[in-house]
User: What shape does this take?
Amino acid sequence: MTEWIPQLPLAEWIKAIVEWAEDNLDFIFSPIDSTLDVTTTALIDLLNWMPAWLVIILFMAIAYFAGNKRGFGLPVFILVGMVFIISIGYWENMLSTLALVLVTTFISILIGIPLGILMSGSESVQRVFTPILDFMQTMPAFVYLIPAVTFFGIGMVPGIVASVIFAMPPTVRLTNLGIRGVSTELIEASDAFGSTGGQKLFKVQLPMARSTIMAGVNQTIMLALSMVVIAAMIGAKGLGPVVFEAVTRNQAGVGFASGLAIVVLAIILDRITQQLNSSKRA
Assistant: This one.
């Protein structure tokens, strides 16, 4: 019944595009590969160089001051959670995962917030980027591993690239949404006082949209953590390879313990970003 429909060789077309990019765009991919590799390796080395007690105290201090010194609940949870991770033997794996998430989140913010600002200022730009963001979020995450490996090989760098593509859309969307949600009265008042575009953006729109933007950053962090196991399939270090190996070898205990370490790290990062957001609103 469907023989009359012409068959599109879409897979061959995409393969040809990827091969062309691989042959001709190395001058773009090579510097990105080198920069991400050096940055991630340096961050992992720094985290491993610091004594575990110092990392724990640092995170407890960040949580305490992010919450405006209003309680010790989160710092105590961080202490218990990180000691638990040490006790089950996944401290170094957790630090590598933390480095992957931090680098992914930093790149997502670096690209995502300016893009969200651009979308908020132009209906045309929003119409162009909205379907691209839909595509980035709905395409199965495994698919991103293929071009990442093609262009960047095996290791942490392709894992970061795939994670950025998957995790960045919430930061873009919520930056756009937050700025568009700023009261028109405030914008008109800003215009009436003769504010320039930059003054209006940095002194009115971004401060008013800060809680929405932080919600987007929080979602980006959680999505980056959800990519940890998938990125392990192409050689990314951390807790992901432990979970992946446990699944392939049917090791329920190892898989559950390493998965629990990811959950503890996710809760810590989630609560810290929430504290940062609530403290800014207070």
